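Renewal narrative, Specific Aim 1. Our central claim is that a sequence can be written position by position from structural information alone. The example that follows is taken directly from our test logs and has not been curated for this report. It begins with the structure tokens describing the chain, in the order in which they were read.
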């Protein structure tokens, strides 16, 4: 069945949701809808949701809630809740959003078209939170790419079976399953041919890629992707510390397109809390893996995720996390206040921490990390680093001289994932350039192109 009209897709959440939203967009395009950047012009509005923390869930309800009034003026408007909150809430979503038409769970994408047809034939409310053993495959619509599409996310696996006690993912994304290497390579080759220079491979624990299916290992997959012509850079997230193998460390060291960066979420520096989180490693094991990474891959960029205020986290446990930050010297961290998720076991753990205490610990941690990042960035002054140019920057930095007004201020990213601003007359998005670093700040570096 073909349709006319416009669609608008709103993404809330992680990189995987960004990728999923593109899939939803390509399904809608294949049914004849046109994409619009404005929800006021849309005939169908899809919100792809995230339930990892309470705040993200509330954002989704509030975004979709605003269309109750619009629907009175535009009764044919179709509203869709997709993704993790849809999977978690099922038909309960209609309680807060009576005007909603489709609740599309995380494994229901392949049936989206069928549900649109049911709406056309008179149904008004559809819920699909059924499982699907296969990951839904569609190739990206590269015709709508422009010069800014140099970096893309690619989901290589879905689901998770680690059951960290705070986390909702295993309940809303289902069992772990991987795409075939052939499908992944086909998709990335297509992207590379259409001008994409960098891909970030996504999975909740990429180290266990292909294990259930008896496919090749993750380092072997990296080797295959490394051979794709025209592709310049490969990144990936997320690695689980308990499964980080020496083979993966060697792949980062030896495969020239794999960036010298690793995001390795530690969550806490306290062994007591790590155990309660069911993370499957100790602080000592984590540091051992970091030491191996630093030895094998000098200059590697390291980032992590941390949760503060997990139930029963004492000041001493929190101090252990601070000590770990000082010991590892991450380049950046993503820190979160623990958020109760009713389907995850930790919601029932005793000794929940006060919101105000969590906030205090979070702010303290971010402040400490800001100083550490700036200190680490300062060590790069005078060094030359290679960047991929990502776009124009509107940040004018001290020391920037453009006497005749011909220079553009551009921005790019180093292999180690540092943001680098620089002035240039000739740089284009997608170029690989060498930049001599002149200044360092907590969130970025600043320099001049070598030989410019
Ligand atoms: N699979 C990844 C891993 O094992 O590290 C994490 C994926 S999760 C989408 C991203 C981050 O959200 C986690 O690393 C954790 O720090 C944070 N997170 C997950 N559940 C949370 C919760 N209930 N409260 C606060 N932060 C949470
Ligand atoms: Fe959640 Fe743990 Fe799985 Fe990561 S590994 S998605 S934190 S359950």
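The sequence written for that structure reads:
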């Amino acid at each position: 069945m073909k349709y006319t009209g416009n669609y608008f897709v709103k993404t809330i959440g992680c990189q995987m949701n960004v990728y999923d939203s593109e899939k939803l967009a390509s399904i809608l395009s294949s049914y004849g809808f046109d994409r619009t950047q404005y929800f006021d012009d849309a005939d169908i509005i899809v919100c792809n949701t995230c339930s990892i923390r309470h705040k993200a869930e509330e954002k989704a309800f509030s975004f979709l809630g605003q269309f109750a009034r619009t629907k009175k003026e535009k009764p044919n408007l179709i509203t869709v809740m997709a993704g993790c909150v849809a999977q978690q809430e099922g038909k309960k979503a209609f309680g807060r959003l009576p005007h909603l038409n489709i609740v599309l769970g995380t494994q229901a994408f392949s049936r989206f078209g069928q549900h649109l047809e049911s709406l056309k034939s008179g149904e008004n409310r559809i819920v699909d939170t059924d499982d699907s053993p296969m990951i839904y495959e569609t190739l990206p619509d590269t015709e709508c790419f422009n010069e800014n599409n140099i970096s893309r996310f690619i989901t290589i696996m879905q689901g998770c079976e680690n059951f960290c006690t705070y986390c909702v993912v295993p309940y809303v994304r289902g069992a772990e399953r991987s795409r075939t290497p052939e499908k992944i390579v086909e998709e990335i080759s297509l992207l590379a041919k259409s001008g994409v220079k960098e891909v970030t491979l996504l999975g909740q624990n990429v180290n266990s890629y292909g294990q259930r299916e008896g496919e090749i290992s993750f380092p072997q997959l990296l080797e295959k992707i490394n051979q794709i012509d025209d592709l310049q850079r490969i990144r990936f997230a997320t690695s689980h510390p308990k499964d980080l193998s020496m083979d993966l460390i060697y792949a980062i060291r030896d495969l020239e397109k794999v960036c010298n960066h690793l995001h390795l979420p530690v969550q806490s520096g306290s062994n007591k809390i790590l155990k309660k989180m069911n993370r499957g490693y100790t602080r000592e094991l984590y540091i051992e893996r970091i030491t191996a990474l630093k030895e094998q891959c000098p200059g590697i960029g390291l980032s992590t995720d941390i949760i503060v205020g997990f139930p029963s986290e004492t000041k001493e446990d929190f101090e252990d996390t601070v000590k770990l930050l000082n010991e590892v010297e991450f380049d950046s961290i993503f820190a979160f206040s623990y958020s109760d998720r009713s389907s995850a076991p930790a919601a029932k753990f005793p000794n929940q921490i006060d919101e105000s205490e969590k906030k205090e610990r979070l702010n303290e941690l971010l402040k400490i990390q800001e100083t550490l990042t700036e200190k680490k960035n300062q060590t790069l002054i005078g060094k030359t680093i290679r960047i991929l140019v990502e776009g124009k920057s509107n940040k004018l930095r001290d020391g920037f001289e453009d006497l005749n007004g011909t220079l553009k201020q551009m921005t790019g990213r180093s292999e180690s994932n540092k943001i680098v601003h620089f002035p240039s007359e000739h740089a284009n998005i997608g170029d690989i350039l060498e930049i001599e670093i002149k200044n360092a700040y907590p969130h970025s570096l600043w320099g001049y192109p070598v030989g410019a």
